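Q: What would this chain look like folded?
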Amino acid sequence: IFDSWAGELGKAEFMEFSYPYLDIMVAEVKERVCDL
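A: My prediction, written as structure tokens:
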């Protein structure tokens, strides 16, 4: 889940290239944990 190179991205690049995927993963985890 965590990328050791993420610190190399500026805020704009992080928001464009990393955040959307992190947001999807968090939503999936929340959905699956609530089903337990």
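The chain has a mean pLDDT of 85.
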